[in-house]
Amino acid sequence: MPLNIKNNYFWVAHIFAVLAFAPLISTLNIDLISGFGLLAFGTLFVSSVVYGKRAQLAGATESNKEDRAQGFVSDFEDRGLGWFWEIGREGELTYISKSISVTLGKKQSELLGLKFASILSESRAQDKSQQWMSLGFHLSSRTSFSDLPFQSSIDENRYWSISGSPVYDQLGNYKGFRGNGLDLSHREESDRALSQLARCDPLTGLANRMEINRTLKKSLLGPQDKPIKCSLFLLDLDKFKPINDTMGHLAGDRLLKMTGQVIVDTIGEKGQVGRVGGDEFQIVVPGITDQVELEQLAGQVIENLARPQLVEGNSVIIGASVGISTFDGLTDSIDATTLIRHADLALYAAKKSGGGVCRLYEPAMLQQASAEREFEEDLRQALVKGQLSLKYLPIIDVSDRTLCGFETLIHWDHPTKGAIEPHIIIGIAEETNLFTQIGDWAIRTACGQLKSWNTDLRVAVNVSPLQLKDGKLVTIVQGALASSGIQPSQLELNIAKGVFLEEYSQNVEVFTQLRKSGVRLVFDDFGTGYSTLGYLRQVRFDKLKIDRSFVGGAGQDGHMNSAIISSIVTLAQALKLETTADGVQTPEELKFIQELGCSQAQGSVFGEPLTSQDATELLKSSGIRLSASALTKYREERRKMLRPVKLCYHQYWFDVIIKNISRNGAMIEGLENIPGGSQFQIDFGNGWKISATSIWSIGKQVGVRFEEPLDLSNLDSALLPDLGRSEAKAS
Question: Among 155, 331, 648, 720, which residue is least crowded by beta carbons within 10 Å?
Fold first, then answer.
């Protein structure tokens, strides 16, 4: 009863006492002091009677409540509906229902004080310790949980479903956990299987996508709905698909099980592991946001997954990439969806960097993803609106220096970004599944263009693994040949090395059908990456295209590239195949590859790729058998020079020499072993700086392509004074 109500009753009692005793006192012949004493005694007497009765009623009410609550609990336990447990801060049992001690054949006092986890079986948990890991995770992160199935470690015939929540005192101090359990021993096995299926991945026994996301949401919410620090790992296997394709799906499933267990063993109780589909795993790591600690943990996972594993008697090695996102517990408006999105962007960055690494999310990743989405949409619209075109790179017969065909390159003049390099178009197209459409368009366009020229020249078109996977390549090629009317042998398909990584047996069948149709097959970039002689035995090629990395500098004394080219040519001659040297830059290189016996050559020595209009004009003016000398008209202006410039690479400035230059690129001397695609900034002097990208590197010479074409008329005023040949040579 509230205090103010008690006070009201108190004064009522006193007033009643005064009214009751006042007449009596007035009839007695006693003095004033005795009268007041008698009145006080009466008041106390009445108050004690009133309050005594009221306290008796209140005590009876409270006792009834306790008896009723205890009755409910006892009835719940006696009827076998469930049992209760409570643990302290260290996980020791401070209370457990008597019914459990009876069931397990133990005294209640024998169970109290034991670790709660000790009465649950780690080795006999239904899904190989995943529930065990979940319990440790929730107890350490102080998050509530429900319906975790366990087997008793004391009685193996007992199965329980455990639920619990953290307990705090009035000051918010953590005291332990309290919860209940349900006996699953007498339920049908199908019920347990359905419950397991709803929460766990059926293959690995890990938490499924729904369950791991539920765990993430709880971790973000934290104890008492107070957000805490939390991190998320998104892990993707780097080499799973080739193994799955070559060894079969059963072997792939076994490998996924082994992978899941390796991740669980590595993470331990620091996080909860789930499989969200395919070869992708998600790991919730509460309480840790330190970058160094997260990178060490992710690095350990990557290292352990990189170790050989035995699958069906075969030793296989897979790799993994990890994207990491974090929540510091303070950021506003963060949720599970956002954290997953950030981890996905970080994983994408890790995969793009070559795999086998971890990357933490940075805001720039989101900006980059937005830019790529915008670029993807622009490319999609360019395809619909007919903004793409083909350029034609001349292929020259080395023996008589005459034109024998063209290789097609995709060209796109972006409305705001200008000319886009073909490799950028292809990269975006392959990542967004647009390349199948673009590749099919390129085949039809090339065949139609060759028909309009009315010549016996050949045209080569690059083929992506995605076109083979699509399964329509043979139909597309046959349709393009039929509609154009050209001879099938006039169409060459450049088969990229990446084709041999996916669905190999299926691809061999596609190649067989293409050869039956009369199309010529070219092994592109031979000698690099995954090139192997085994492919030459399985697939009948017509030509080997020697990669440009072997061609550059082949004529230099003591250079190993010349020996490699000579070996490839000898192999091709033995197999009665043609050879094309790609990336020929100088007349000296052209002469040398001719001496080595190459059949054909292509590269900037013959000029830049031609538009269809320029190629048509060239063929009309020069006839079918075109001399290479006629191509000089279409070769861009080049200047030979020896000029010093400043070049910025990886935030460091170097003194280098420009040996020759054109509107679109230059050859620079002074840097060694520069990877292709490296970004530079070149300072020509007088405040004139431009951006460039390396396209080849041989010794100390690097070929670069400018981001924007130069006006060569500005060179004389911008470049520093000529050093002279002797000084340049000395440098």
Answer: 331
Residue 95's nearest CA partner among 82, 106, 109, 105 is 109
The type of residue at 459 is: V
Cα separation of 619 and 451, whole Å?
Answer: 13
Q: Are strands 458-463 and 491-495 parallel, antiparallel or unpaired?
A: parallel
List Cβ neighbours of 665 (8 Å cut-off, separation of 6 or more): 692, 695, 703, 704, 705, 706
DSSP E strands: which ranges in 185-244? Answer: 230-237
pTM value is 0.58
- Helix or strand (DSSP H, E) at 703: strand 701-706
- Strand, helix or coil at 730? helix
Q: In a 10 Å sphere around its CB, with 0-12 CB exposed, 13-18 middle and 19+ buried, how is residue 320 labelled? A: buried
Query: Is 253 exposed, middle or buried, given 0-12, 13-18 or 19+ CB atoms closer than 10 A?
Result: middle
pLDDT for 127 = 44
Angle at 644 between CA 643 and CA 646, to 5 degrees: 140
Could you tell me which of 102, 135, 105 has the C-alpha nearest to residue 118?
A: 135
The CA distance from 464 to 702, in Å, is 28
Extract the tokens encoding 524: 């592109």
- Contact criterion met (CB below 8 Å) for 192 and 149: yes
Distance of CA 140 to CAs 206, 268, 281, Å?
A: 19, 12, 22
Chain CA centroid to CA 621, Å: 53
Nearest partner of 259 among 213, 204, 211, judged by Cα:
204
Q: Where are the beta strands (DSSP E) in 170-271?
A: 174-183, 230-237
Contacts of 624 (CB under 8 A, 6+ apart): 455, 456, 457
Beta-carbon contacts of residue 129 (< 8 Å; ≥ 6 apart): 122, 123, 264
Partners of 284 in the β-ladder: 232, 272
Q: Contact, 671 vs 652, CB < 8 A?
A: no
Q: Tell me: the pLDDT tens digits for 443-481?
A: 999 999 999 999 899 999 999 888 887 778 999 999 999
Quick: pLDDT tens for 312-337: 888 888 889 999 999 987 766 678 99
Identify the pLDDT of residue 607.
79
Burial class (CB in 10 A: 0-12, 13-18, 19+), 197: exposed
The 3-state DSSP composition of the chain as helix, strand, coil percent (nearest 5) reads 45, 25, 25
Q: Which two tokens stand for residue 159?
A: 């199965």
Among 417, 260, 227, CA closest to 327: 227
Distance (Å) of CA 658 to CA 335, 461, 621, 655, 668: 53, 34, 36, 10, 5
| Stretches in the chain below the pLDDT threshold 70 | 1-75, 78-81, 122-134, 186-197, 225, 331-333, 497-498, 500-505, 529-532, 553-559, 623-638, 676, 697-699, 713-731
CA dihedral 476, 478, 481, 482 (to 10 degrees): -110
Both tokens assigned to 703: 């070929």
Q: What one-character DSSP code corresponds to residue 489?
A: G
Please give, one letter per residue, the 3-state secondary structure of 262-325.
Answer: HHHHHHHHHCEEEEEECCEEEEEEECCCCHHHHHHHHHHHHHHHCCCEEECCEEECCCEEEEEE
Say which residues have a Cβ less than 8 Å from residue 477's Cβ, sequence separation at least 6: 443, 491, 493, 514, 517, 519
Number of other residues whose CB lies within 10 A of the CB of residue 381:
11
Predicted local distance difference test score (pLDDT) of residue 722:
40
Taken in order 593, 595, 596, 600, the sign of the CA dihedral is positive
Q: 342, 132, 333, 322: which is closest to 220 by C-alpha? A: 333
Element holding 189 (H helix, E strand): helix 189-199
In the prediction, which pLDDT does 293 show?
95
